[in-house]
Amino acid sequence: MDTNYLENNNLILVGKVASEKKFSHEIYGERFYSFDLCIPRLSGSADVIPVTASERLFNDDMLKEGTKLLIRGQFRSYNSYENEKNRLILTVFAKDIEKVEDEKQEEGENKEVVENTESNEDITSTEETKNEAFKKDYITNEVVLIGYICKKPVYRQTPFGREIADLLLAVNRAYNKSDYIPSIAWGRNARFCQNLEVGTEVKIVGRVQSRNYEKKLEDGTILKKVAYEVSIGSLEVIKEVENKANTENTESTDENNSVEEAM
After folding, report:
1. Quick one: fold of 5-102?
2. What pLDDT, on a 0 to 100 scale, did the predictor assign at position 100?
3. Which residue of 6, 99, 194, 227 could cross-link 155, Cys pair, CB 3.0 to 4.6 Å?
4. Where are the domains of the chain?
5. Which pTM value belongs to this model?
6. CB 46 within 8 A of CB 18
């Protein structure tokens, strides 16, 4: 079966550069760099998301701290071996980077475009300009994933009674690779997710979020860490597991070959 990997894993982010770029790795002479992107939430807080990008996609002026960028790409994972332990690292892999002008300059440019367009009676171009401005202003953090439940969802309630379910989604990538994406569902979605079987194919739409937490080490030291995950806004089951026997086989295979590698 043909797979469209851009549809399986597709995101758009609009935010401001929040760190200096750092060298990440090099493949066949092409250098990749990483930096943080700060994306405001409606609540007033913000998510700070790591981004990995090829040197072909940007110039130094674009990655100055405070520069507003529109990034299209994928949410990916890879394994990092640290202190004899396997750790799942998550990052946004940029496919396209576009510099977004500040609001005042953008308003002036849009006004000029509209005036020129109206004088030429080109209504189509006007609508395209408005649509693009709408996307930049309102779609600031959206990710769409199609993948398979590869670990039994964990359902729980907070002390205040809020319902949460943790999912680990395996999303296919080209060259027989997969990305393992931690996701979190809330409320009715959480109640629904707790009954999903391993191997179920689902489509989720949500946002990439960063979450600060503290980990207590054996010596009592408190280590501050950051987790990255997809906060699920909507979830759709594409294909359920056919029978329990297949579910058990899938769960065994995924846990032995995939989940242990990802964690």
Report:
1. OB fold (Dihydrolipoamide Acetyltransferase, E2P) (2.40.50)
2. 93
3. 194
4. 5-102, 103-139, 142-262
5. 0.77
6. no
